[in-house]
From TrEMBL:
Enzyme class: isomerase
Residues modified to N6-(pyridoxal phosphate)lysine: K38
Annotated GO biological process: D-alanine biosynthetic process
Organism from which the protein derives: Cellulophaga lytica (strain ATCC 23178 / DSM 7489 / JCM 8516 / NBRC 14961 / NCIMB 1423 / VKM B-1433 / Cy l20)
Protein name per the record: Alanine racemase
Entry-linked SUPFAM superfamilies: Alanine racemase C-terminal domain-like (SSF50621), PLP-binding barrel (SSF51419)
């Protein structure tokens, strides 16, 4: 890869393949794989990722919002797409683009049956979401008889899958809670199958669920962060490779005398004779203010340069006093060595937030 000459997000599709194969190696041969490509495929590029992951053999895709699924269909991708969080206003597009809604409440179930009836659909695939402890979206076990009755009173929809979501699959100190969620979902699944008289796909595990709860894979697993290279535990660092590298350049160097300030509101004051580098990257690119004031850092010619002062909208300033560098030099914000996870952790957040926050104005380039 040539050195960065402006801010770019490099996406390595070979690493995506490696990550997919590693996660697949954790599954029984007939367990299906759903690739979560919401939020621009975790800040990378939903179309390129959806294409590649479909070529690799993923059975399903999932997005959060309908518009994300529409964008993938417009790129010509035919893989089944689950929309995790639809609203009534989205149903027309969902059906027009052959997307499959998550049905998470009695209200949304009634609304979807009403809509599919009004356009004379038969057996339209839907996915029933169950709440087993996250308390975010979904039906409870007690709702099953009523849901099934509504489904059996219509021919317009068919249950393609039933699923639930773990609240702390990455946190082994909460193993007992997760095991309880798994037991609840098993019990819901049995009741549902018995009443429906057929057996839809069952799925519960996200990436950390795949890695930590092999007995809870059911018929399908849903992976997002693992595909993008993070296993939520250092022991996976050798197997999962971050696919995205954020790079930029030094726009200008400044020599500061002691007590001179840097940036808005004089948030940083030079303690000695210093050199700072200004970089074309700011909170509007996804390097939020939490990374300012020496919480966050970048790497220049192999050396760590802390962010000094407040993050501006389109710029950050970093301390390069002890770094041999010049204007135009490449800067690594994160890559597979200096990971987004390490940077996020240093600022008190998580890799998910950092990578999904890289804004759309940052040019994406692909390594095939
Ligand atoms: C985002 C999401 C996932 C993916 O989780 P990862 O931890 O990124 O693997 C899976 N299932 C649901 C319901 C989600 O919202």
């Amino acid at each position: 890869m040539p050195k960065a000459t402006e801010t770019v997000l490099e996406i390595n599709l070979n690493y995506l393949e490696q990550n997919y194969k590693y996660l697949k190696s954790k599954l029984a041969p007939n367990t299906m794989f759903l690739a979560v490509v919401k939020a621009f495929a975790y800040g990378s590029d939903q179309v390129q990722i959806a294409k590649k992951i479909t070529e690799l053999g993923a059975d399903y895709l999932a997005v959060a919002y309908t518009s994300e699924g529409v964008a993938i269909r417009k790129a010509g991708i035919q893989t089944p797409i689950l929309v995790l969080h639809p609203q009534e206003v989205n149903f027309e597009e969902i059906v027009a683009y052959n997307l499959e809604p998550s049905i998470y409440s009695a209200r949304i179930l009634d609304q979807f049956i009403k809509y599919t009836s009004s356009i004379n659909k038969e057996d339209y695939p839907v996915h029933l979401k169950f709440n087993t402890g996250l308390n975010r979206l979904g039906f409870l076990k007690a709702d099953v008889p009523q849901i099934v009755q509504k489904i059996q009173e219509t021919t317009t929809i068919k249950v393609a899958s039933a699923f639930s979501h773990m609240a702390a699959s990455e946190d082994l100190t909460e193993k007992e809670f997760t095991e309880q969620q798994i037991q609840k979902f098993k019990s819901i699944s049995n009741t549902l199958d018995g009443l429906l008289c057929y057996s839809p796909i069952k799925h519960m595990c996200n990436t950390s669920g795949i890695l930590n709860y092999p007995d809870a894979h059911f018929n399908m697993v849903r992976s997002g962060i693992g595909l993008y290279g993070f296993g939520n535990d250092a022991k996976y660092d050798v197997y999962l490779k971050p696919i995205a590298s954020l790079k930029t350049v030094i726009s200008q160097l400044h020599n500061l005398d002691p007590n001179q300030s840097v940036g808005y509101n004089m948030a940083y004051k030079a303690t000695h004779k210093m050199v700072t580098a200004t970089l074309p990257l700011g909170h509007a690119d996804g390097i939020y203010r939490i990374y300012g004031n020496q919480k966050g850092f970048v790497f220049i010619n192999g050396k760590k340069a802390p962010i000094v002062g407040n993050t501006c909208m389109d710029m950050i300033m970093v301390d390069v006093t002890n770094i041999n560098c010049k204007e135009g030099d490449e800067v690594i914000v994160f890559n597979e060595v200096h990971t987004a996870d390490a940077l996020a952790t240093a600022a008190g957040t998580i890799s998910y937030e950092l990578v999904t926050g890289i804004s759309q104005r940052v040019n994406r380039v692909f390594i095939f």
